[in-house]
Amino acid sequence: MITDPIADFLTRLRNAVNAKHRIVEVPASNVKKAITKILFEKGYILNYKFEEEGPQGTIKIALKYHPVTKQPAIMTIDRVSRPGLRQYADSENLPRVMNGLGIAIISTSRGIMTDKEARNLHIGGEVLCYVS
């Protein structure tokens, strides 16, 4: 049993990027699906596919690399809030990743969104991770 499924998801992505894999497969959950959609919308991954086979289902993620330099789109992906120490931020104190070049993924009362969207809606929440 995994105690922190979001950290496991981020670690699988990080390991696949470091190993230069094209596709990574992770167990699905609603939070992981929302994070995957945000990563796709912001251009950090190439594509994704939700497969509903088995009791839980899986998410297949195609990782994105620069065509010439082979540099990954995801340079760093770090878990912020964890089960042992939750990190919350109100709308005035939402973090800025790399001075606005990266994103922070926030779990709010209106769903999972980026720090910029939460700042525009004037809502805070739990800071899940930083991506740059």
Low-confidence stretches: none
Structural class: alpha+beta
What fraction of the residues are assigned to beta strands by DSSP?
Answer: 25-35%
Total beta-strand segments: 8
Q: pLDDT average, as an integer?
A: 96
Write the element-wise H/E pattern from the N-terminal end onward: HEHEEEEEEHE
Radius of gyration: 15 Å
Summarize the amount of helix as a percent range.
25-40%
- Chain oligomer state: single chain
- 3D shape: globular
Total helices: the number is 3
Largest sheet properties? 5 strands, antiparallel
How far do the termini sit from each other?
29 Å
The gist of it:
The protein is an alpha+beta fold and 132 residues long.
How are the secondary structure elements laid out?
Blueprint: H1 5-18, E1 23-27, H2 30-41, E2 45-51, E3 58-63, E4 77-79, E5 88-89, E6 103-108, E7 111-114, H3 115-121, E8 125-131
Antiparallel strand pairs: 1-3, 2-3, 4-8, 5-8, 6-7, 6-8
Describe it.
With 132 residues, the chain is an alpha+beta fold. Helix content is 25%, strand content 30%. It has three helices and eight strands. It has helices at residues 5-18, 30-41, 115-121; strands spanning 23-27, 45-51, 58-63, 77-79, 88-89, 103-108, 111-114, 125-131. It is globular. The mean pLDDT is 96.
List keywords for this structure.
25% helix, 132 residues, globular, alpha+beta, three-stranded antiparallel sheet, five-stranded antiparallel sheet, 8 strands
